[in-house]
Amino acid sequence: MKKSVLYFLLLLFIQMGFAQSNLSWQGYFSYNEIKDVSESATAVFAASENALFSKNVSTNVIKTTNTIDGLSGQTISSVYHSATFNITIVGYENGLIIVINEADGSMLNVVDIINKQLPPNIKKINHFMEFEGIVYVSCDFGIVQFNLATMQFGDTYFIGDNGAEIMVNQTALFNGFIYAATNNGMRRATISNKNLIDYNQWETIAAGSWSSVVTFGTDLFAINASGYIHKFNSVSNSFTGFIQLSQPSLDMRATADYVIVTTLNSIYIYNNQMALVRQINTNQITDSTPSFTCATIIGDAIFIGTKENGLITASLSSGVTFENITPIGPSRNNIFGLDATTSVLWTVYGDYSADYNPYPLDSYGISKFSATGWLNIPYQEVLGAQSMTRITVNPSNENEVYASSFFSGLLKIEDDKPTILYNQTNSGLESLTFVGPNYIDIRVNGTAFDKSGNLWVTTSRIKNGLKVFKSDGQWQSYAMDNILDSAIDNNFGTIAIDKNGTKWLSTSEDGVIGFNESNNVFKKITAGPDTGNLPISNVNVVVVDNRNQLWIGTTKGLRVLPNVDSFQTEDQMTTNPIIILDDNLAQELLYEQFITDIVVDGANNKWIGTADSGLFLVSPNGQETKYHFTINNSPLPSNVINDIDINSATGEVFIATAKGLISFKGTATAPNDTLNNAYVYPNPVRPEYQGTVKIAGLLDKANVKITDIEGNLVFEKISEGGTIEWDTTAFGKHKVASGVYMIFISAQDGVETKVKKVMIIR
């Protein structure tokens, strides 16, 4: 008992701490891929791949729950709402269970199945069935009891032959027996038997593979793997098939009045005589072509889960009007590339493997987020552009956007409408040719605008890999076969352009290539102590920081070129690792890490994404790791970081992961040119506010002093970037008292000053 209390207190402590940390996070999840649904008398609960939402059918209020609220970023496989306990149970493919208290939103992570000594690939949770306060959890290895009153697990039933693990897809209670639909027979045992952990207590009453079993009124129905609906005969203790579906069943469930069967293309609704009263086919939903995953009924409304189109509802009794009630978000969670401005965010979903293989090709659209919400441009409108991996907004014209396709060329978007797909027929872009002259494959990836409004473009695996689309509409190509060891084997990552107009290109085979068209010179930084000192020649990302240093992210670690001016003066530029002290031992920062992206914020800090270790924030010189965010200590839904970008005006850091987009509300905004727009928020600071006071709109290296009304100094700091924070303490010692506080701001040279006030209410 004492251990249970300590365990509960530990969980409570972890959850409270985690909730506090979420004050700086925001989620931008897609809810389009519905994995499962459940229902109460007044609400439908829908589980997408790693987030939930519910809709109250009486009030029409929609509530979302995602990793920001405490959910795991792992893939959800099942969801169940218990009206008796007013809780929602979420099951995951890795065996995790999260119990949500709907009264207060608190969550309990239950890791008993994850911790079982079983192969990790058989821990998937398939179904929940509640009986007398116990939930019977169907898993890929058997059945587990979970007590809803104590929130603790009971017995585990391995009911396969000779007690082996067996995939249990669904369970049902009928006439005192618990029936289990498995991939090796329909099995049953007496529910009151206290020894169900003994596999001998379970009998097989039907052979074959079974996907579903449900109790409906006084009958028991089941569906086998071939989509044949069976009815149980209690006299002969056998199942008799009576309805053959056109496709295998994906889901079957029973409400008080109906049995609902879901296949990929159809929903079948049967009444209590098992007469078909409604059939809904995908072609009836005219504004999309959905693939069905599951369905349920509340009153006269049917709710249909789809694979890519979210949750759709319609009246059961009348009409064929369908309404999509999915919360608006991006089209998909696996965002590969993004670009943030001060007012909009663009995302693309195409991808390639670690060795730059775009196959199988992706046919996804583009999404835009702004003050008005999400705009999703479907694949049907992107002029055939596949596997779009990068997106770039013209800094001189925010209504002009370019999406890089790693197969189809370069897509231009004007005023939110795709207008031109630049390819080998209408531009200077070229297809790779080593496959054959008739195969078109144009692998555009990194793009960047220079100060003159020219768009620089890289195209992989061709001789003229660097191109520029000039502001006058002309194209120019630059041959790179003399600087690259093998142009047709090389792939390009990102481009960075420095203050001198030098273009820095990351490559898969030749490290970093520097180029300046003013003297038409190419230079290479690659692996080896005498050729650039990179840890490996495979470079994913390059970025120029606020001190004109070039930060280089490779598949095997990090390097820094001390000054980009060295391109003008040195024949062979040399990079350096960042050496830090950890436990008084000197070691290399991010040693051997696969770095996917690096972004510089307004204070010259570096946000560094990795392929499997989450997200790092390091100080301007890299000597201090300010944050290391992972799935274990933050709302990150995945440790796989695909891309990062920052809204320079607000400091919001957008993080695209393999399982969802979230943001961290940082304070390192870009510095302003004047103090005319300096402001303080929140103001006033009310007693319930737990955060810091932000002084924003600053010049770089502005001096900020805060005094009480009598002139006593309580805070002083020099800004790095456009924003600083004050924790409302007197030099970090104690909270200041209620009152008005004066904020004196002055530029580094003392010429420009500004005075602000903030009221603190305790």
Automatic annotation (TrEMBL):
Stored Pfam families: PorZ_N_b_propeller (PF21544)
Domain PorZ N-terminal beta-propeller: 44-203
UniProt-listed InterPro entries: PorZ_N (IPR048954), Quinoprotein_ADH-like_sf (IPR011047), Secre_tail (IPR026444), WD40/YVTN_repeat-like_dom_sf (IPR015943)
SUPFAM superfamilies given in the database record: NHL repeat, Quinoprotein alcohol dehydrogenase-like
Keyword Transport in annotation: no
Signal peptide (from-to): 1-19
Tagged with keyword Signal: yes
Keywords of this entry: Signal
Protein name as catalogued: T9SS type A sorting domain-containing protein
Species the sequence originates in: Flavobacterium rhamnosiphilum
